[in-house]
Structures are given as C-alpha cells and as structure tokens.
Amino acid sequence: MIFLQIDKTSQGKYIYQQIYAGIKESILQGKIEVDEKLPSKRVLADRFQVSINSVSNAYGQLLAEGYIYTIERKGYFVENINQFIGQQEKAPPDLPNDLREKHSIKEGWLSLSHMTADISKFPFKKWLKCQNEAIKNHQEELSEITHPQGPYLVRETISRMIALTRGVRCEPEQIIIGGGTQPLIRQLMTLQKESTKVGVENPGYSRIYSLLQSMKFNVSPINLDKKGIDINEVEVGDPNILFITPSHQFPTGIIMPISRRIELLNWAALSNERYIVEDDYDSEFKYGTDNIPSLQSLDRNQRVVYTGTFSKTLLPSLRISYMVLPPELLRTYRHQYSNYIHGSNSLSLFTLHYFIESGEYERHIKRMNLHYETKRKLLMKQLQETFKDDIDIKDVPAGLHFFAHLKTNRGYEEIHERAEKEKLELYSIERFTLNNKYKGAGNGISLVLGFATIKVEDIPEAVGRLRRIIK
Ligand SMILES: Cc1ncc(COP(=O)(O)O)c(C=O)c1O
Fold it and tell me: Would you say which domain of life the source belongs to (predicted)?
C-alpha cells in the first residue's frame, strides 16, 4: 500500500518529486512488496487529486533509477532491491578534523617564496587577445579531445621555441605536453621497470623525490660538489635514471659547468639503460649572461629527457609543462599511452601558441628579466646591508630565487615558527634536504629566497621581518 503526503502548497518540491520520494521510501522500507503492482497512473492521480502528468513523471524517474519495472500492457511493479546494511537513518559521519582544510587568509603577509611568478606584470589583455584567436581559429579542435601528447600545432611551436632558446634538438613528435612536471615525470616513470634505480640531487627538488618514493622506486639522494651533482657518487650509486637541474641547480643555484656536463653525458652514454632527466625549470631568466645551452643540446647519444615549464615564465596556475623524449622512450610511451586522454586544457594551449607566435612571449620574458633583476639586486643589497658579515649570499645571476646562509643560533623549526608569527613566507634548505643532513646543524641556516612576488616597495619590510626572525 502506498502512503503519500502531498503538500500542494510546497514551494520547495514539485508534486511529481513528492510522489517519487514517497513511493521510493515505501519501497526502501519494505512497505510495498517486491513484484507488487503499483496503482495505474490514473488511479493514483485520482486518489491524490493530482494530474496524471505528475504521476507519470514520478513513475518515469523511479523506472530510470531502477526502483520499479514495467511490463507492457500490465503496468508498473516493484523491483527486488537489496536492503542497505546498517541503520539507514544514521547520517554519514562528519569528516575527521585532521582531514579538514584550514582556509587562513594571508592578510598582511609578505612572501619570499621561490614558487611564484609576478602576476602583477602578467599581460592579461594580450593573453586574452590570443585566447580569442584560439577560439576563432580552432573551433573543431576545441570541440574534441586532443592527441595524447597535446595538439601537434602547439608541440611544433614549443619545439621551434626551445630549439632557438635552449638549443634543444627535437621533433614535435617527441614532445609530451602535460599539466605539470610531476604528472609528466609520473608518466615517464611508468615506462620504467620496477627494479629501476633512480638518483636525485641532494639538496634537490623534494616534490620529485617524494613522487619517486611514492612510486616505490629505489631512489637515492646524491650529494653535490661545486660543479653540481657529484660524478663520483653517481658512478658509485650507478642509477639508471638521474634527475638533475643543470641550468640552475635547485635550490643551491649552481650552474653546471661544461666539464661536469660532459662527464655526466659520457657516463650516460656507456649504457642503453641509463637516462638523465634534465629539469630546465627556470633557465629563461639569466641576468647579465646569455642563455646557457641545455644539456640535451650537447647529448650525442639520445640519453637525455628534457623537461620544461611555463610556470616561471608565465604563471604556475596555468599548469603547462612539457617533456621531450628520446626516440626509444617515445616508442614505449606511444605503446603504453595510446589510449590516454590528454589532461591539459586545449584552449590554454592554443592561446599559448598565439602568445609565442606573435612574439608576445619573448617580449614578456625580456620585460620580466629586467623587472626580476631589479628586485633581485634590491633584495640582495638590503640583505647585505642588514646582516653584514652574518650573511653569505650565493649570487648566481639566474632564476627566480637565490641561496643564502645566515649566522644564527636558532634552529630551523624555531625559524619557521618565528616566520609564521612575523607573517613572512620563507623556505629553508631543510625542506629540500633529502637525508636530514642539515637538520639541527647548529651553525646557521640556509635559506632559499625567492623574489618573484615581493613588491619593490615591500623589500625593506620583508628584510626587517627576516632580521627579527633571525636575531
Ligand atoms: C626544481 C623545479 N622543477 C620543476 C618545477 C616546475 O614544476 P611545474 O612545471 O609542475 O610547475 C619547479 C617549480 O617550482 C621547480 O622548482
């Protein structure tokens, strides 16, 4: 028997929704037997003084969700539905507190983060103009899913650009565009055997280190010397894949000299099982020197995987990065990812194509180079004047951050707590040390100081806060 309470004056729910909900509840509570015939639409409509249409819509919804079935010319019947285990009335438990996110508003904060780009100088109008071009000219491509490696046209543009700026030698076919360096590296590593040994720089990019660990690879941090990753340790550790940042070592800033580059390439050339992944994350920014050619451009044996990103030159929120695979890896990639749906937003990618093709990208980088150089010099000057002999700045004229060592008796934990109180976003080498070597060293602290976001006029205040944190 169906019991329905219909409120015709209800503002919230349509009549058909009330009928649907009432019958559904009766079925779930076993008040209507399995295979029991429901009243015809007309009978039910008469009984509750509602329109046949309302009953028809309610039966249609119950049918679509599988609560009832229909037999032609006989009517509607109740489906055989399993009962839920446990108490149905019980509300789902609240999300545990440790899983809740804190949404603190960073009002009054200043940032010396290395992870940002200066949005105040981003040419949004020009970007939107290029976006309009993309919408006008790529209707067909925008209405379908793209090639697993990203649109060919955009890969062509990127390959031309990195040939010019980084000396990277590749065909568009070798480029894989992705929504970030991490997802690309994840894809690359799924092409490797489980037994693959991986070497990473220490200190180094901890996000890649934790990604590789989470993928259960045998990953070893390899120490640096003055030229970058220590070649002797590489030879002893004998990894199959070596992750490095030769253009501007992250985070120390070392620019790898040609002698070490050749040593590493020669090491990789000795086996077809060895690859070097060159993470060229911020090489576009050099102050006072020309761009230094990539490691990939020196490689004669197709042992280098090159990765690049638009996170520093444009905005990290765009999530456009790419990797260049040597042919052998590309073949495995094609085989494994033929069914893959590309994860980037094609509209942004075609926009990027016009942004580069129109010369806007090059102009933007030139402008940003000048702008960042001004801020870099000012921040260094202010730090030097404030900390005098207590600071040792590694002045490498590249990238969007530099490395500095400060004398202090305070440990890293204390420094970070004080930075929180002073509202200064600050990162130290502790975060990038992959084997705890720097923790509690007691002889000062090493900081990774980014200058992309901080406004020129806020630099004195940021350094003042840093002084209060350290002293
Ligand atoms: C060392 C290093 N590699 C790569 C990247 C770029 O990552 P993505 O392309 O995912 O933005 C960054 C960004 O901060 C980085 O610091």
Answer: Bacteria
- Interstrand relation of 275-279 and 304-309 (parallel, antiparallel or unpaired): parallel
Question: What is the pLDDT, as a whole number, of residue 39?
Answer: 95
pLDDT value at residue 442? 64
Percent of the chain with pLDDT over 70: 97
Quote the ligand 1 centre to 76 CA distance (angstroms): 60
The mean pLDDT value for 220-237 works out to 97
Query: Same structural domain for residues 406 and 448?
Result: yes
Residues near ligand 1 (Cβ within 6 A): 115, 180-182, 205, 245, 250, 279, 281, 309, 311, 316, 321
Report the nearest atom of ligand 1 relative to the CA of 309.
9
Expressed in angstroms and rounded, the spacing between residue 310 Cα and the centre of ligand 1 is: 9
Task: Give the domain extent around 431.
Answer: 110-116+363-470
- CA–CA separation, 352 and 358 (whole Å): 10
For residue 447, which of 415, 422, 420 has the smallest C-alpha distance? Answer: 415
pLDDT tens-digit readout, 432-470: 999 765 554 568 999 999 999 999 999 999 999 999 999
Over residues 124-182, the pLDDT tens digits come to 999 999 999 999 999 999 999 999 999 999 999 999 999 999 999 999 999 999 999 99
Q: Quote the CA–CA distance of 106 and 121 in Å, as a whole number.
A: 21
C-alpha 470 chain-centroid distance: 32
204-213: pLDDT as tens digits: 999 999 999 9
Segment (H or E) for 36:
none
Q: What is the DSSP string of 310-351?
A: STTTT-GGG--EEEE--HHHHHHHHHHHTTPPP-S-HHHHHH
Mutate to test the pocket of ligand 1, among 207, 284, 432, 449 (most ligand atoms within 8 A of CB): 207
Q: How far apart are CA 144 and CA 148, in angstroms?
A: 12
Mutate to test the pocket of ligand 1, among 116, 181, 185, 313 (most ligand atoms within 8 A of CB): 181
Q: What is the mean pLDDT of the chain?
A: 94
Same domain, 353 and 367: no
pLDDT digits (tens, 9 = 90+) for 108-118: 999 999 999 99
CATH number, domain with residue 378? 3.90.1150.10
Quote the CA–CA distance of 166 and 313 in Å, as a whole number. 14
Domain boundary among 301, 335, 358: 358
Residue 212, domain member (yes or no): yes
> What DSSP character marks residue 97?
G
Confidence (pTM)? 0.91
DSSP secondary structure code for residue 223 in this structure: E
CA distance 430 to 453: 22
- Residue 161 Ramachandran class (φ > 0 left, ψ -120 to 50 alpha, else beta): alpha
Asked whether residue 102 is domain-assigned, the answer is no
State phi, psi for 173 to the nearest 5 degrees.
Answer: -60, -25
